[in-house]
Each structure stands twice: as structure tokens, then as C-alpha cells.
Amino acid sequence: MPRHTHIVKVHHLSLAFPTRHDPNPEPVLKDIDFGIRDGEILGLIGNSGSGKTMTAMAIAGLLPEGAVITEGSIKFAGEDLTAMKPRRRRQMLGSNIGVIFQEPSTALDPLMKIGTNLDEILLTHGMKDKAERRKRVLEMLGTCGFADPEEIYSRYPHQLSGGQRQRVLIAGAALLEPRLLICDEPTSSLDTVTTIQILNLLKEICHKMHMTVLFISHDLSAVRNFCDRVMVMRGGEIVDRDTTQEMLLHPRSGYTAELLTNARLDTRMLGLERATVDYSASPVLVARDITARYDNSSSNVLKGASLEIYPREMLGLIGSSGCGKTTLVKTLLGLMPHGGSITCSDKQTGAVFQDPVSCLNPAHTIEWHLLEPLRAAGIKLTKEERRKRVASALQDVGMSPEYLSRKPRQLSGGQRQRIAIAMSLILEPSLIVADEPFSSLDSSSASEILKLLTDINRERGTSFLLITHNIHIVRQICPRVIVMDKGSVCEEGLTSEVLSDPKSDAARKLLHAESVLHGENYSE
């Protein structure tokens, strides 16, 4: 295949979702025109709904049902993708165009081991020799930074951390050595240390295999040291484009400047207030010497982890991917067997997870979701009492009753996360465990959810265990913080002390990674 100056050329592309009732709707993409140079890393940023993912899926040939390209063309290495027959177009995916999605837990089959997930890619593309496929998969897992590829090969997706699952997706996308790799928010759910590791891994693999990259993100800081050029989208249009350094130093549009400002979720601009915590009161939760392991693992994932959460406290929990944060959350919520003791003052503990899409049943309405926790807890209420409880939970998260009849797909990411929070509040728990509740959201939606959680904490007196990779948030709203590393609590104390003078290597690495990612000075 001959080399071209632009491996991808999107020429005046417009896209819409026409229906029988509205054959000429407002376009979702409006006259998009750009090229991706052979071998470059192009960043595509913007808030949710800006058209980033739709642009990428148009190139990949993965547009949702009902999407119609109304104008323009997409050329890949000189071939017009929009004029290709469906079979030829499908063959392009994987072998010529690879895709890494935002949430690896939904991209990997949970019922298949990692080795089987990756083996299927090679088998689908014609590699018949089973031993050769296994060798190729193990080699690629090693290339993607796994010290023990054999162990990862035999694990299930739920037995890996978020960063490990993302490395698996990179391995899967790189197996066929495609010429174009589309990365759709591949680091949004990762901590700062793992984010830098994943970005460095992507850059290394792409240079080694001469891949071109289209990197999609809602965070301009994530593209700082990764992308050669950046384009900014808003409302289905490209509103800014330049080299990465010029974009960061001299944004041309007000919208780009706003994205730069919002990238850090500056809580001071949101007017957040901390709740007053009485540390002489009895804790709402005490966990002592918690140990846990997965069924086919030879060693513990948690190794004697302990913590206390006090009334009205917003306790921060940070650590690199794979340190045991999410496994600890599972044990606290009673979702996996463990050793040690957990004492909670309230039998009802709420939970808000990272990805609201996978927590909501697409077949049911929002009203059904809000009533489900009551049914599961065996709480008997009259019809009027249920109506009042549902209305109150919706009001608490800033949503009106009109959303009750809608289904999850009809809500934005921020709205789905609000519903997940309402599902926790409806049981009136004294403690809510929030596991990365903002990471899959753009900065505007994340700011709204952050303010909502702090309002609930202050006004209702609800305690929170906040697991996040955003140290900036922890610094401003959590009076205490716990740092985990290798399955243990390696440091804990007042946030102001731990983050200004860290004693553990794990905390120092997190702070250093934060400074690198956001282009700040940090001295170890």
C-alpha cells in the first residue's frame, strides 16, 4: 500500500440522524474537514456531545444505527471509505484501523479470560494455528508492559485493575498492527501515574509499529505531552486547530481557553464548602486488617488494609492503578469475600460507580431504577410513600419528574451519574462509597457532579469515601486522605500534610505525575 502525506482525509463531512418524522434533522457533524498525516498523533478534544466520538466512529465504520453521512467523504490511504462495500469496510477494521475504547470493562467479554478475548481477534482475522496465536498474544502482552503475561492471559477482566484492562485493549488493538489507531478517551478513568504510563506506552508502540493515532479526549491537559497537533470540536464543528504547544500557550478561541480552565476542575470557582467533621464521634465505618484475593490468584490483592470513616467526612482514597482501591471498595460493599473485620453503623451503604452506563439497565425507565433499591432492600412502602421518596431523590440530585419515564440512553453522561447518585440516596444511607464518579465525564459535567456530592455531604450530613485519581479535588474537599500501594495503606493523615510533605514513594509518584500531566513544577 503506497504511503500518502495524509493517511486519513475527511473532506467536508456532514452527518445526521434522519427519521420518518424528521427526514432533514439538524446535522450532528457539520462540514468537518481535516487530515491526519501519516505517522502523526492528532488530538481531538471537546466536551460531551461535541461530535468527537461520532467523527472517530465515522472513520472506523462503527456509526450507530440510523446515522447517515449526508455530505462529504472519508479517504484512508487514498481509498474512499464511504464508497466501499460493507464487507470490505469490515475487513478494514482491525487490520488497517484499530480502536481503543474509553471503558475497557465493556469492551472485554467478562465471561472470557484475557487470553481468549485476545485470541479471538487473531482467529477472526484468519490466524488458524492456536499455538502461534497464543505466542503472539503473550508477546504483545509483554510489549504492553505486563511483567507476567502468562498470569494476565489466564485472568478474567474483573480480576484486573482499570490500567491493566486498558493495557489489554492496547495489546488487542496492536495485535494486527493497524496503520491507524483510534483512541477514544483511553485515559479518562485512570490515575495520573497510570495515565502517563499508558500515554508513553501508546507513543512507544506507535513509533515502533509506525501507527498513526487519532486521540480523543475531553481534557486538553491529557494531550499536552502526547499529541503533535490538536483540534477542538464544539457542536459538531471544528472551532480551533493548531500544534499542541501553540494551543496550550495561545488558544485562538474562547471555548478552547475555557476547556483549559476547566481541565483541572478548580473547586474554588465552584464555591464548594466542606462539611464540619467531628473526629471525636464514633466512626460510621471501621475496617481492620482487610485481606482479599481472587479465586485463581496465588497471592492476596489486599494485604491488611485498615481505615475509618467519620460522620459527615469526605475521606479521599488515592493510589495508582492496581494498588487495590477498587478491590477494597468491593469488600466494603460486601461484593467479594475477605478476611479481617468491617463494622458499619448503618446497614445501608450507598455506592456510586465510575461508569453509570454499566450500572443502569438499558431496558428499564429511570423510575424503575429508583424503585429497584427499595425492592432489593425489602423496604415496604405505600404507593404514595414510594412516589414521595422517588420525587425527593430526584430533587436532591437536581432533576425534575419528567425524567422518570425516560431510559438511560436518553440521558447525558452527567444525568446518568445523577440517577446513580439518586439510587443511593433513596435508601438514605449514612455513607456513600463513590468510586471514580467523575472520570468518565467531561469537565463541565464533572464540576456539576462534584458540587452535587459536596452539597449532599454538607446538607444531609452523608459521609463519603471518595476514590479518585484527581488529586486536585482531594486537596480541596477532603480533610483526610488515604494512599494505597500494593494492596496496603501506605500513608494516611490530614490532606494538607500528606500532599504537601508526602512520606511514601507512592504519594510522591502520584504528585510528580500530576505535575507532569498538568505542566507544573514539582520537586521531590
Topology:
Blueprint: E1 6-16, E2 29-37, E3 41-45, H1 52-60, E4 68-76, E5 79-80, H2 86-95, E6 97-100, H3 104-107, H4 114-124, H5 130-143, H6 149-153, H7 162-174, E7 180-184, H8 192-209, E8 212-217, E9 229-234, E10 237-243, H9 244-249, H10 254-262, H11 267-270, E11 285-292, E12 302-309, E13 314-318, H12 325-332, E14 339-344, E15 349-352, H13 356-359, H14 366-376, H15 383-396, H16 413-425, E16 431-435, H17 443-460, E17 463-467, H18 471-477, E18 480-485, E19 488-494, H19 495-498, H20 505-517
Parallel strand pairs: 3-8, 3-9, 6-7, 7-8, 13-17, 13-18, 15-16, 16-17
Antiparallel strand pairs: 1-2, 1-4, 4-5, 9-10, 11-12, 11-14, 18-19
Write a brief caption for the model.
The protein has helices spanning 52-60, 86-95, 104-107, 114-124, 130-143, 149-153, 162-174, 192-209, 244-249, 254-262, 267-270, 325-332, 356-359, 366-376, 383-396, 413-425, 443-460, 471-477, 495-498, 505-517, and strands spanning 6-16, 29-37, 41-45, 68-76, 79-80, 97-100, 180-184, 212-217, 229-234, 237-243, 285-292, 302-309, 314-318, 339-344, 349-352, 431-435, 463-467, 480-485, 488-494.
